[in-house]
C-alpha cells in the first residue's frame, strides 16, 4: 500500500495577531469531518491558532486550552460545523484517546487535537498536520513565558514572538488544496 499524498505550505507568523489571522484563513478551507493535528512545544501557539480557527468557523464560546477537561465542543453560530478542541498532552496513549469517543463527533465537526502527533492519526486517514516552531533566531529562552501567556492568559495580542507554521495536508482530501496566500 502506498503512502497517502501530502501537500504543504509554510508561513512565517510574526505575532499573536498574525497567528489568529492565519487560523481564521485556514478555517475557510475546513469542512465537517476534517481532523487537524497540532504539533509544537509548550507555548508554541497551538491554542492561539485554534482560537483563530474558532473565529473563522464562527463558533460559540471562548476557545481556550482544554488541558484539564481534555476536550471541548464549540457549536457553530453560523450553521457550519462545530469545533471539537482536544488536548492530548495528559493522555497516556491511544486507548485513552479512544475513551474520549471522538469518533462520534468526527463526521459532523472539525476536530483539532493539540499534542496529537503519534496518537490522533488513527482517527482519520486524511488530516491536516499543523506544526508550529519558533522562527530561527527567536529567543529560545522566552519559550516558557512569553507566549504561553499568548495562548490562554491574555498576553498582548501584538507582542512579537515569531513562529514558523507548516501546514501539511495528508490524504486525498488535501490534494490540490489552495493554501491561504501570504
CATH architecture verdict: 3-Layer(aba) Sandwich
Tally of individual helices: 5
- Strand percentage lies at 25-35%
CATH topology: Rossmann fold
- So what's the CATH class? Alpha Beta
Estimate the global geometry from the Cα principal axes: globular
Family: Belongs to the TsaE family.
InterPro entries: P-loop_NTPase, T6A_TsaE
Keywords: ATP-binding, Cytoplasm, Magnesium, Metal-binding, Nucleotide-binding, tRNA processing
Subcellular location: Cytoplasm
Task: Tell me what you see in this structure.
The chain is an alpha/beta fold. The protein has a single domain (9-170), classed as P-loop containing nucleotide triphosphate hydrolases (Rossmann fold, 3-Layer(aba) Sandwich), CATH 3.40.50.300. Helix content is 23%, strand content 27%. The protein contains five helices and seven strands. A seven-stranded mixed β-sheet has the order 1-7-6-2-5-4-3. Strand 3 (71-74) and strand 4 form a beta hairpin. Helix 1 (16-27) packs across helix 2 (46-57). The chain starts with 5 loop residues before the first strand and ends in a 12-residue tail after the last strand. Residues 140-157 have low confidence and may be disordered. It comes from Nocardioides lentus.
